């Protein structure tokens, strides 16, 4: 009898191969290891790299002591410590409309990291799995709406009114005017 892995001759009664150490019953198929990475997204096509990137740095918010604000301004603490935010309506290609005021995640099954807090988690029904589980992050800065690709498998493309399509670089924030179309794989939404 010969080893099915390396082809070496095995003596009668041998349990293991003296050359490669495989068991006598091992086959090439049984030695293959299962891929531990989940097959969560399908890559349709890589987007070409574009040098023009619009990025807005977001400064860290410094907490203001509540007593000092109330004593100086005579304004209730809740009104003075929270920044005002505009309301944006996201109209998806499925016809679904979602009104958002703060920050959030969009994907098939959006899940924030343990140290992250978001106002909205928006699920996109996608049987083909072209949209990543956590595909896109959005938020506001000074009343303007921004998006950031969360290293999605199929990427994100924005189409500002009157401009050409622009693929997003993962991890960078892009400010979007109202009327911009955001394409996330096979789905899209418009910011209004």
UniProtKB/TrEMBL annotation:
Keyword Phosphoprotein: yes
Name listed for the protein in its UniProt record: FHA domain-containing protein
FHA domain location: 104-158
Pfam family, one: FHA
Keywords: Phosphoprotein
Transmembrane segments: none
